Amino acid sequence: MKKEEYVRYDAIGLAELVKSGDVTAEELLACALEMAEDTKVSINAVAAVDAELGNKKARQQHEGIFQGVPFLVKELLAYPGLKNTMGSRLFLRNIPVDATEYTQRIDASGLVTFGTTASSEFGLLGSTETALHGITKNPLNEAYSAGGSSGGSAAAVASGVVPMAHASDGGGSIRYPASVCGLFGFKPSAKRNVASMELSGPFVNLVSEHCITRSVRDSAAFLSVTEKRGADATFAPLGFCREPQKKRLRIGVYTGSLMGNEAEASVLEVVAKTATLCKELGHEMHFIDAPQLSGKAISEAFFTVAGSAMNQMAGFMEQMLQRPLGGEELEPFTLDLIRWFRTLDDHAVDRALASMQQASETMRDYSGRYDVLLSPTLTSEPKKLGFLSPRLGKDELIGRTEAYVGYTPIHNITGMCAMSVPLFTGSSGMPVGSHFAARPGAEADLFGLAYELEAAMP
């Protein structure tokens, strides 16, 4: 298979070719490696490649729904044998040995994992511009950011290196990069999946693991691979959601951000077009006021628990190294966040968790009247590189993040499932995602709607 043909398929399409014998896993991997090399300088989506590991996996007997399909994992995920740098120079030599149930599920699905995608340092920022790997560019326009923290995953899919890539979302880090790269980004409900790591804590608990894809079916199939099954499942297993539902949805539409601001005009136009499309598909549309939440309180709580996690990590490493960490190991924003957290009192995390709990209860009450909520994914069209650079000051970066990423964090706090769907472009010609969210455990409603939208706007 030539790479020009390879890039036209989604993951299930490639797996079907392998199963039919029309192509081998080794041939697919060769295409992926060639694409990774072709885009290495121009896009810089792939953090590390292990061709030897990939070829070893490609030669194995493959089964599962993604039989023989090349795959990349975000560098925040500990995958045995691959560098788990977390986007930081501090962990440049960190290579995990042991598999988790999550990585075992990935392998059992037939995916051929051969490398990692770039992330912002520790997944903290909404643009992937790290001191470790450099700048990850948007394949649709290299002057723009591919987003973050899963910017490398989105850029790898949009540039054709892989048909889908693992990603994670602690405040919008799947949905935001998917939006700006014109891809489908789905965030599962909290506790839907098997655990991806042994660690737990307030910051880790915000994170949902999944993938960024070019097709709805790839995303739905991947969730069927990673979801919990059996006695410990929080929700009834979905299986593979393969098609639209007949159920017509009651959809609430709002446009005000968490900070109380409206999105820019071109984004509002995209939401209006999306609402019209949903109505044409037979869904019941209700235009409503934005949820009454304190964006400032949510932001402070989010960065407090993030600062706590970074402080714990830094304290462990400083004890191990017997010296303070500095700018040669951590980026300016990460260092500033740690220093800021160390000025807080002992009850700061408790207050942050209480604030999140209050916001969660408010959002669940608000969303309970509807099957699905529709809003913008971001407050504006995609931003150019440098807008969320880690070299900016902490207050400036947090302020810009609050203003730009004004819709997605609340769904992590509430544990809701959510998705950014690529339907329309903005005035700049760049993609503007439409964001849908539903109650925890209601993934079937979102996938059913996504299939309808995909059919209407292929």
Question: Secondary structure elements and their pairing?
Answer:
Blueprint: H1 3-6, H2 11-20, H3 25-38, E1 46-49, H4 51-58, E2 70-74, H5 101-108, E3 112-117, E4 129-130, E5 134-135, E6 137-138, E7 141-145, H6 151-158, E8 164-169, H7 175-180, E9 184-187, E10 208-213, H8 216-226, E11 250-253, H9 265-280, E12 284-287, H10 295-321, H11 332-341, H12 348-367, E13 372-376, H13 394-404, H14 409-414, E14 417-425, E15 431-438, H15 443-456
Parallel strand pairs: 2-3, 11-12, 11-13
Antiparallel strand pairs: 1-3, 4-5, 6-7, 8-10, 9-10, 9-14, 13-15, 14-15
What labels would you give this structure?
eight-stranded mixed β-sheet, 38% helix, 15 helices, alpha+beta, 458 residues, 15 strands
Structure description:
With about 450 residues, the protein is an alpha+beta fold. The protein has 15 helices and 15 strands. The strands form 4 sheets. Strands 8-10-9-14-15-13-11-12 form an 8-stranded mixed sheet, sandwiched between helices. Strands 1-3-2 form a 3-stranded mixed sheet. The protein has a two-stranded antiparallel ribbon with strand order 4-5. Strand 6 and strand 7 form a beta hairpin. Helix 3 runs antiparallel to helix 4, helix 10 crosses helix 11 and helix 10 crosses helix 12. It is globular, with a radius of gyration of 21 Å. The two termini are about 25 Å apart.
